[in-house]
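Recall the central idea of this unit: under ordinary conditions, the amino acid sequence of a chain determines the structure it adopts. In this exercise we apply that idea directly, starting from the sequence alone.
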Amino acid sequence: MSPTSYVPTKIEGFHDAHIHCKVFFSSVEQSGGQRVRLDLQKLTQYSFFPGQVVGVEGHNPSGHCLVASKVFDSFPFSVSPDVEFPPAKKQAMDHEFQPDSPSSTPEKLSLVIAAGPFTTTDNLLFEPLVELLAYATRKQPQLLMLLGPFIDSEHPEIRKGTIDRSFDDIFHSDILRRLQDYAEYMGSAARVVLVPSLRDAFHDFVFPQPAFDIHSDLKNQITCLPNPGLFDANKLGERIKSGHSGVNMAGTRLLNFYVFGFYPLYPPSEDVPLDLSLAPEALQIPSIPDIIILPSDLSPFVKVLALGEKTSTGEQTRCITVNPGRLAKGVGGGTFVEMNYHENPDRTHALIFHM
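Accordingly, the structure predicted from this sequence is:
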């Protein structure tokens, strides 16, 4: 590298446990992908994680250590809501979901969002799921989004291996059957979306994770997405990730990184079976979505995330990020989110409900 440098880089890890020294590697165009130490002592504040892509301005007088004077962790990004997703990145697109009311604008959508487990730890009766479906039947949202785990590998009965039914039988008889009954009652105006989790005992343990394979008769109103997945409903772009974030951060800073990629951490967390051969297509997104759904064990929240970029009209780019929490927690009920989205975050109403 030249003595004065401005380069895009990826943070790789700590160097010799010194807090002000990290290892990063640059682009092939800039430095052939070579690794070098990054000295941060001149920065008043910073926060990095392994795998983060940043821009660094600084000096490298020796060729072995870049002394940073500025760090940029935000880059221009597409904000078009009508972008056409390439087939490999799109992963799931719903062209049939249209509002029945002629007065409804394409940007209006009512949702109920919940993440598993869907049964308490003292049984496999799925009582929280039954209560959720009863609530959705009363409220009649256009979209019911359910994110795994559905058959939780961490459930005590599953871990003991003493149940006398197959996981597929439990999923189809206790979950899909109830969802089918709900969809038939609601009619064509409603849609159910299912997203798997790495904790689903009966599904592929790999990330990115494929969608559930359900019977074709159920696909008319039940849509299965991969994890992570993209979904377009009423011209709203939604992004869903179900499972472990792998990043030990909370609040707006973590959410900012998820705008640019489904899994920003590298190397991955030990409990995430990341398949990098799938990552170039499955972990990227071409534009900022209207809604990001990121379930976790943290306290549930609905946040409006301001990204600092401008739209074509000069307004600041924003998206809504949702953590619905867990529908079941221990032997009791948990939380879920009900949202009414109307054109933009300012006119959107969301509530967190406790079971």
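The first helix runs from residue 28 to 31.
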